[in-house]
Amino acid sequence: MVNSINFLLLFSLLVFAPFCHCKKKVGGYLYPQFYDDSCPKVEEIVKSIVAKAVTKEPRMAASLLRLHFHDCFVKGCDASVLLDSSGTIISEKRSNPNRNSARGFEVIDEIKSALEKECPHTVSCADILTLAARDSTVLTGGPSWGVPLGRRDSLGASISGSNNNIPAPNNTFQTILTKFKLKGLNIVDLVALSGSHTIGDSRCTSFRQRLYNQTGNGKSDFTLDQNYAAQLRTQCPRSGGDQNLFVLDFVTPVKFDNYYFQNLLANKGLLSSDEILLTKNQVSAALVKKYAESNDLFFEQFAKSMVRLGNITPLTGSRGEIRKHCRKINT
Ligand code: HEM
Ligand SMILES: *[C@@H]1O[C@H](CO)[C@@H](O)[C@H](O)[C@H]1NC(C)=O
Ligand SMILES: *[C@@H]1O[C@H](CO)[C@@H](O)[C@H](O)[C@H]1NC(C)=O
């Protein structure tokens, strides 16, 4: 009797499980309608504040897009990047990739405070970051996509995770690919998401090595166009000027398009991590060429890969919390 009940249970699981869509939506437990009842205006509010900030300063779109990436690669997309230091929390804002570099926190604060007025204690900071990344892409001319929602916010930060998981601009191709794979992303995601460098800026310190001493032999990176390198050296000296800013895509610096990939083909990628997508691996090189040829194919894959980025180990259900202020955990 017990056996036959067990058998029936097992049988129905095997037969019906493949048809159960309960939890297998795009984004696992996350879904775009998450706030439809609890905060129907969430998307409108996020978009209006991002739009205002980007109008005021076009670079803000890039900064917000990058913030989502730096959030998701550390403990998952849980807004850990937004926490300030306090008590036992050491802020990720102090890590190598973020120090003097990550920005946009005031815009996230403004969105959070508007949402706390509209629907108190409902929308997570992690979801705000994800929506702001999508809106930043659209506002600069990139593709749009439905954003799976329902993330919750972390109760802590990880400065070691921020230092170790986020790729550095002088990492080898293999190291960067490994860091993506550790987050469940593949080589297609790596190339498509690197296309984010079609907007935004980099500091001199992030690529200086390429201009003067790429491999330790006192020579510049031979995969960098020599005229472009000479031009960059005038504003990025051997020493000093660490914080001087350079556009990542010199053709259309504030427009989201596929010039990033076309630049790579012309040996005019700014970061070493950009150019090696073309020079160190045949699979990624083929993808660079494909996206350089077709803006549509780039946009289509970028949208898909952004959803995959946003799905990295979110906190859902009763895990984590909905922060009242994005910079600190609730007391
Ligand atoms: C593939 C490995 C990656 C590396 C090594 C890398 C590295 C960097 C570096 C060094 C900068 C300049 C930072 C500075 O000097 O202040 C930068 C900027 C930027 N990155 Fe990446 N990145 C990578 C992937 C990504 C991804 C996946 C995204 C988004 C999905 C992204 C979005 C951006 C944006 C938009 C900027 C400009 C930010 C601004 O102007 O404020 N990056 N990245
Ligand atoms: C990469 O850059 C960091 C920081 O500037 C430097 O300490 C390190 O030696 C560089 N690594 C390589 C392999 O060049
Ligand atoms: C280049 O880097 C190597 C190794 O870091 C160092 O020994 C050498 O002095 C540097 N050369 C120049 C010209 O800066």
UniProtKB/TrEMBL annotation:
Residues holding heme b: H197
Domain Plant heme peroxidase family profile: 29-330
GO cellular component, one term: extracellular region
GO molecular function, one term: heme binding
Cystines in this chain: C39-C119, C72-C77, C125-C326, C204-C236
Binding site for Ca(2+) 2: T198, D249, T252, D257
Major localisation: secreted
Keywords assigned: Calcium, Disulfide bond, Glycoprotein, Heme, Hydrogen peroxide, Iron, Metal-binding, Oxidoreductase, Peroxidase, Secreted, Signal
Annotated site residues (Transition state stabilizer) in this chain: R66
Reactions the enzyme catalyzes: 2 a phenolic donor + H2O2 = 2 a phenolic radical donor + 2 H2O
CC cofactor note: Binds 2 calcium ions per subunit.
TM segment ranges: none
GO biological process: hydrogen peroxide catabolic process; response to oxidative stress
Keyword Nuclease on entry: no
Localization terms from the record: Secreted
Record-listed Ca(2+) 1 binding positions: D71, V74, G76, D78, S80, E92
Signal peptide: 1-22
Cofactor: Ca(2+); heme b
Binding site for substrate: P167
Function of the protein: Removal of H(2)O(2), oxidation of toxic reductants, biosynthesis and degradation of lignin, suberization, auxin catabolism, response to environmental stresses such as wounding, pathogen attack and oxidative stress. These functions might be dependent on each isozyme/isoform in each plant tissue.
Stated family: Belongs to the peroxidase family. Classical plant (class III) peroxidase subfamily.
Protein name in UniProt: Peroxidase
